[in-house]
Amino acid sequence: MTTMYFDLHIHSVYSRDCESLIDSILKHAVDIGLDGIAITDHDTVKGGIVGEQRAKELDIPLIVIPGVEITTTRGHLIALGIREDIPSEQTPEDTIVRIHELGGIAVVPHPFKRMSHGIGDFSDLDLDAVEVFNSRFITGEMNRKAERMARKVGLPELGSSDAHSVPMIGYATTEIMAERNQQAVLDAICDGRTIVHGSRIPARIFAAQMIRGLSRRMKEILGIE
After folding, report:
1. Domain of 182: which CATH number?
2. Which residue of 1, 48, 107, 206 has the lowest C-beta tally within 10 Å?
3. pLDDT digits (tens, 9 = 90+) for 109-154
4. How many domains does one find in the chain?
5. Are 33 and 158 in contact (CB under 8 A)?
């Protein structure tokens, strides 16, 4: 086994609120020393599948885990290790059942960040892990609340950037001890062989991403290409 560092919550151009190109994500992840990433676009696995393929085509030494951030009736859930879309707006319970049927693992991201569709109290859900450090939070209280609940119910802890632009990648990571392959990494997460590292994304990077997002939404409202 070896010690590896992953950012397990990254968005790409396949998310409506992100413009990060897959190749740019892969190259930046390697440049900053990551061993692996998960591409988890909103309600589509396409970004993760393309990322996995492009890493092989470019011979990039990066484990790319395909995933998706799914909109449920209570908030967002992340599925890691699946290659098939799961319908949105189902209950979290039904969504988790489907994630497991597809051989993936179910993670709750930013559970207490309501503005980002946090699911809230997750103690009743059959989860595999909890994102206890999300580097997009301006303050740390919601991360600490997620950590406290994860420890109370005995769930593995993850750290991730929730990157919506390439420079955001890697500000929070999960240290994982596993063999160097995708399934071994997923198994290690479920076994709790994780250590969370991270810091909040600098204000200048966060502000730049927010400005791009507002500009994109205004163009959509005004019908500008």
Report:
1. 3.20.20.140
2. 1
3. 999 988 778 999 999 999 999 999 999 876 688 999 999 999 999 9
4. 1
5. no
